[in-house]
């Protein structure tokens, strides 16, 4: 009886080991999502965040260039017309740089703005006069603020030399554009996102 029981236990143990080996062989190893999105290039590793930055800058130009064209015929303010022309010209230059960087790093670029940007363009295309002036200044100022945060975050942590250089170029353009838009006197700063809450100051230790 005991001998029979020992034999059954031995066979059961064999089945368990065999099943475990089968699972190890059949199941693929776990893959770190961040590592899977990492690409090695001659200028350093390229991350998903690096690629996202290049794509976002491309899309910014794809809607701000036609928005600048709208300002030539739809704006009432001469300053808005001038700002629209300057931003459009800058984005033509920046778009060329973006495409060169994307080609060098193997990043596929979109050929149209994202859904929100397309809605903003449709809104501007339906307006003229003071309404256009106000919405042009505020839509573009809010958009520049958002992409500025992305650029700064990538620049602070990227391991890719080409992306660092690109981010620095983008920051120069974005800072210039925010100043231009604010120079119209139409930007409603109360509608911009609140600055991040600062970390609490460390308490002073008792001496």
Automatic annotation (TrEMBL):
As given in the record, the signal peptide range reads none
Transmembrane residues, as ranges? 9-27
What are the entry keywords?
A: Membrane, Transmembrane, Transmembrane helix
Taking every annotated instance into account, which residue ranges of this chain make up the domain DUF4142? 49-177
Q: Does the keyword Transmembrane helix apply?
A: yes
Region feature (Disordered): 186-207
The name this protein goes by in its record: DUF4142 domain-containing protein
């Amino acid at each position: 009886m005991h001998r029979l029981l020992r034999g059954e236990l031995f066979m059961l143990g064999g089945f368990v080991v065999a099943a475990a080996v089968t699972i190890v062989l059949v199941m693929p190893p776990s893959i770190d999502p961040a590592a899977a999105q990492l690409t090695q290039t001659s200028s350093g590793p390229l991350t998903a965040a690096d690629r996202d930055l290049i794509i976002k800058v491309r899309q910014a130009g794809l809607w701000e260039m036609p928005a600048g064209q709208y300002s030539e015929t739809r704006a009432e303010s001469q300053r808005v017309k001038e700002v629209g022309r300057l931003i459009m010209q800058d984005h033509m230059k920046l778009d060329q740089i973006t495409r060169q960087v994307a080609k060098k790093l193997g990043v596929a670029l979109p050929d149209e703005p994202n859904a929100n940007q397309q809605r903003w363009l449709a809104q501007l295309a339906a307006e003229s006069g003071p309404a256009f002036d106000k919405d042009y200044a505020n839509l573009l100022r809010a958009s520049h603020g958002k992409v500025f945060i992305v650029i700064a975050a990538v620049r602070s942590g990227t391991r890719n030399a080409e992306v660092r250089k690109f981010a620095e170029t983008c920051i120069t353009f974005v800072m210039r554009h925010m100043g231009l838009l604010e120079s119209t006197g139409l930007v409603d700063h109360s509608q911009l996102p609140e600055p991040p809450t600062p970390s609490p100051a460390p308490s002073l230790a008792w001496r």
